[in-house]
Amino acid sequence: MVTSTIALDEREIELHFLRASGPGGQNVNKVSTAVQLRFDVARSASLPEDVRIRLMRLAGRRLTGDGVLVIDARRQRTQDGNRREALDRLIELIRRAATRPKPRRPTKPSRAAIERRLVAKRRRKTIKSTRRPVSSDEA
Questions:
Q1: Is residue 120 classed exposed, middle or buried when 0-12, 13-18 and 19+ CB atoms within 10 A define those classes?
Q2: How is domain 10-98 classified at the CATH fold level?
Q3: How far is CA 119 from CA 13, 16, 67, 108, 125, in A?
Q4: Which helix (H) or strand (E) holds 116?
Q5: CA nearest 39: which of 49, 52, 48?
Q6: Torsion of CA 122, 128, 132, 138, to 10 degrees
Q7: By C-alpha distance, which of 56, 68, 61 is closest to 14?
Q8: β-strand 13-18 against 68-73: which pairing, if any?
Q9: Of 42, 36, 18, which is closest to residue 28 (Cα–Cα)?
Q10: Secondary structure of residue 16 in the 3-state scheme
């Protein structure tokens, strides 16, 4: 259960285990602890259309050309820890995609703000005009 309305089918998530670099001593060359999670966002029946679109935008470079989200987890030293981390990151991404963005309400500056801006422009104009060199006509 990702949110109150979205539940993922476990068959939609593929987990592949591979050897991780980093700490682990001799174990690092023998045990496949890193996890690569693959979730087909484009063809997922679990996601509503609006969430799917926002998730594809949020995924960025983690999304393949086929619409598959790829999450690599290799921080933990155990396979189970990396599996949990990858699933947590997927769930967090889907939760972020599930929240609808607030619609932008167009605003306009107040009359006082417009007046302040124009006064500041006039003041700046006079400051800059006094910096001009005096020509022979004006002297």
A1: exposed
A2: Double Stranded RNA Binding Domain (3.30.160)
A3: 61, 65, 54, 18, 10
A4: helix 111-129
A5: 52
A6: 20
A7: 68
A8: unpaired
A9: 18
A10: strand
pLDDT single digits (tens) 54-110: 988 988 898 888 889 999 988 888 888 999 999 999 989 988 988 888 999 999 999
Query: Does pTM surpass 0.70?
Result: no
**Cα 46 versus chain centre, distance:** 21
Contacting residues for 71 by C-beta, under 8 A, at least 6 apart: 36, 37, 39, 62, 86, 89, 90
Tell me which DSSP letter residue 94 carries: H
> CA nearest 59: which of 48, 70, 50, 49?
70
Residue-by-residue DSSP string for 30-61: T---EEEEEEESTT-SSS-HHHHHHHHHHHGG
Share of the chain above pLDDT 70, in %: 90
Q: What are the start-end ranges of the E strands in the chain?
A: 13-18, 34-40, 68-73
CB of 21 within 8 A of CB of 48?
no
